[in-house]
Amino acid sequence: MESETSIRTCLALPLGGKVVTLGFPGFAFDAQGEAFICPERLAATLDHAALENCALLIVLVEEEEVPEDAFGLLTAACAKRNMQLIHLPIRDYQAPDAGFIDAWQQHDGQRRAMSARSETLALSCHYGAGRSGMMAAQLLIDQGVAAQEAVARVRAQFPDSIESDAQLQWLLQATQQNV
């Protein structure tokens, strides 16, 4: 039996490569409702075919949203797979703040080079819908897709994507701000 993964979308990028959205790899709850990182689910997610050729995983959760050992386990799992891990938190249900935008822009060249090499970029938040869906749509917009079309493409694969009005409005406005 295949282990469950947290993969939500796998979208082709217009300039090459793809973006994959996912929930925090391995995140699960036990019978008492306590959150933990399931090693099998973590491995199944990172080893999923959608993440083949994945050079970079950007994690958008705030540290307090996941179990204490989550980042240590994820860092080790990514290193084992030669996958770079970058933590760029956005508050849940919110749009990015100025600090995030500055950090995101610092990696613009890396993301463009990955597209040119047809590599995969993964975006993870808590559930794999709001923040990761928003930033996947932003990547599409960055590569020339109209904002409404970018949102539609992400939601066509995972309807829960881009969870809040704040996230949607940010995408629509960011188109004019060159994020």
UniProtKB/TrEMBL annotation:
This protein's UniProt keywords: Hydrolase
PROSITE patterns hit by this protein: TYR_PHOSPHATASE_2
Record domain Tyrosine specific protein phosphatases: where: 98-169
UniProt keyword Hydrolase, yes or no: yes
A GO term for molecular function: phosphatase activity
Keyword S-adenosyl-L-methionine annotated: no
InterPro entries: Prot-tyrosine_phosphatase-like (IPR029021), PTP (IPR050561), PTP-SAK (IPR057023), Tyr_Pase_cat (IPR003595), Tyr_Pase_dom (IPR000387)
Record PANTHER family: TYROSINE SPECIFIC PROTEIN PHOSPHATASE AND DUAL SPECIFICITY PROTEIN PHOSPHATASE
Protein name listed in UniProt: Tyrosine specific protein phosphatases domain-containing protein
Organism of this sequence: Martelella endophytica
Upper classification of the organism: Bacteria, Pseudomonadati, Pseudomonadota, Alphaproteobacteria, Hyphomicrobiales
